[in-house]
Amino acid sequence: MKKVVTFGEIMLRLAPNGYYRFFQNDQLGATFGGGEANVAVSLANFGLNAAYVTKLPEHAIGQAAVNNLRYFGVDTSYIARGGERVGIYYLKKGASQRGSVCIYDRAYSSFSKAEPSNFNWDEIFKDADWFHFTGITPALGGNMVEICKEACIAAKKHNVKSGCGKCD
After folding, report:
1. Residue with more model confidence, 142 or 44
2. By CB neighbour count within 10 A (0-12 exposed, 13-18 middle, 19+ buried), where does 85 fall?
3. 13, 71, 79, 130: least CB-packed within 10 angstroms?
4. Does the pLDDT of residue 34 top 80, yes or no?
5. How far apart are CA 76 and CA 112, in angstroms?
6. Can you tell me the mean pLDDT for 139-160?
7. Checking DSSP bridges between strand 28-33 and strand 11-16, what pairing results, if any?
8. What is the pTM of this model?
């Protein structure tokens, strides 16, 4: 079975129910999302061995994100723990002529404060076939460029395919 490794930030998504505007009513639905996490869940749903790599705090919200990924069959064994907050995004669904609105609150999240030492890429890429991350990940600043570069170097060393030009 193919093993696909995805790397990025999973965030808490808060959204008004239905097509309400922000705070048009007093309820927000809470789920988890993020491009790379969504890819891991989709691949797991298709029967692939999908591993997700990120950093999350050790508190209940961080654990809820891990549990959510596990529910869908994603391997969470490479998730680093630490830091204080989970990134958040607010999503208002568009309706008719009104477009959707997405507001990000991810400053100082555990992921954005990650250190290169949080990830053992040699272990992560053992038996891996594919590596996926998106352009937003290195653009988050901090150590993300260095971490993504280390991941690409390790992926190439382990003959792991990637869409990243630096990896292939």
Report:
1. 44
2. buried
3. 71
4. yes
5. 18
6. 94
7. antiparallel
8. 0.91
**Interatomic CA distance for residues 91 and 163, integer angstroms:** 28
State the virtual CA torsion across 65, 49, 38, 63 in degrees, nearest 10. 0
Q: Which amino acid is at 81?
A: R
Q: Map residue 50 onto helix, strand or coil.
A: strand
Instruction: Domain 3-162: give its CATH superfamily.
Output: Ribokinase (3.40.1190.20)
DSSP character for 8? Answer: S
Strands, E assignment, 9-120: 11-16, 28-33, 49-53, 55-56, 80-81, 88-92, 101-105
Alpha helix ranges (H) inside the chain:
35-45, 60-71, 121-124, 136-139, 144-157
Q: Token pair of 58, please? A: 């050790």
pLDDT band at 154 (very low <50, low <70, confident <90, very high): very high
How many Å is the Cα radius of gyration of the chain? 16
Q: Does the pLDDT at position 1 exceed 70?
A: no
d(CA 65, CA 42): 16
